[in-house]
Amino acid sequence: MKKLLTLVLALGLVLSMVASASALTIAFSQIGQESDWRTANTDSVTAAIEGHEGWEFVYSDGQQKQENQIQALRNFITQGVDYILFTGVVTSGWDEVLTEVNEAEIPLILLDRIPDCADKIEYKAAFGGDFPLEGRRQIQWAAKYLESIGKTEDVKVAIMEGTTGSDAQVGRTEGNLAALADYPWMEVVGQQTGNFTRAEGQALMESWLKSIEKIDVLIAQNDDMALGAIDAIKAAGLVPGKDIIIVGCDSVKAAFEAIVAGDMNATIECTPLYGPFVVKAIEDLEAGVEYDKTVVHPEEGVYDCVGGIEVEGTTSVLAADVIDERQY
Ligand code: AHR
Q: Which protein residue's CA is at the shortest distance from atom 1 of ligand 1?
């Protein structure tokens, strides 16, 4: 009996040691909820962390304000969390607070938008979109589609940008402009921010339709702004997808629906589904596996109204063929 009791006690001790070894508090400083993409991103990370046994999730919504995110990061340090996941609303201005995270020796994982101080700070892993590539693909898709319908003269392009100063806006704009250099018959007639939201995309398109004589192509740096613009185009008595060719970015389900309905022409994928990447990285780090500082870009596709258009690194897929498989 005494031996059995000792065995039970020893087993209990081992189990509690295993449990405490794997008990982690993981905190996420998110930007806000400006788009369908962002909602899917929050949901993916939340489900992955909360679904992991022994892990506790602490979430902070920055509501698009850098000062809120800085405060959240300082709160995480005070709470003594075990890991911090971070994406910044803009690229600059994080040096001081991320240095504080480093000094507190809390492992940092960068997600989605990478801060411009990344080479000066310590982080354990980084996962994000290849924004310049996405921007180039937007223009390449539009140019090749226009070539396929024989429209290669005097094409007027409006670029609806995301949140000014964000990694996604900076990278996609760089990609848009670099690719446009290959198509001198495409001329930029509008370039302004719609702040990655549907409402601001709609308002900007309304104002452009009043002030710009002709727009043949809308390059919207995310799908939400493209969807807002579609409402404005319809309200102005024009036909989206025909009178104005529309290329979005993200590949959210609502964009697939718009493409299938004929209102939109293409969407360049930028996956928000980082939950599984984060879980794998933390498990690896806990097991002593180290990652280098390379930003890992998930493989992404292009979805459209025709299929078979070659853009840098991939060929477009007909949206109607895969709409039922979309996870976000
Ligand atoms: O950083 C990724 C971008 O942020 C997405 O393209 C956009 O929809 C989101 O708001």
A: 168
Residue 7 CA to ligand 1 center (angstroms) comes to 54
What residues contact 81, with CB distance under 8 A and at least 6 apart?
25, 26, 27, 58, 106
Pocket test for ligand 1, best of 33, 63, 112 (most atoms within 8 A of CB): 112
Q: How many Cα atoms occupy the beta-carbon half-sphere of 295 within 13 Å?
A: 17
pLDDT tens track, the chain, 328 positions: 455 445 444 544 444 444 444 799 999 999 999 999 999 999 999 999 999 999 999 999 999 999 999 999 999 999 999 999 999 999 999 999 999 999 999 999 999 999 999 999 999 999 999 999 999 999 999 999 999 999 999 999 999 999 999 999 999 999 999 999 999 999 999 999 999 999 999 999 999 999 999 999 999 999 999 999 999 999 999 999 999 999 999 999 999 999 999 999 999 999 999 999 999 999 999 999 999 999 999 999 999 999 999 999 999 999 999 999 999 9
* Binding site membership of 274 for ligand 1 (Cβ less than 6 Å): no
What is the best residue among 30, 34, 35, 41 to mutate for testing ligand 1's pocket, by most ligand atoms within 8 Å of CB?
35
Give the distance (Å) from ligand 1 centre to CA of residue 19: 37
Residue 71, CA atoms < 13 Å, CB-side half-sphere: 9
Separation between Cα atoms, residue 206 and residue 231, nearest integer Å = 9
Against a cut of 0.70, is the pTM above it? Answer: yes
Q: Which structure tokens are listed for 8?
A: 């039970």
How close is the Cα of 118 to the center of ligand 1, in Å? 19
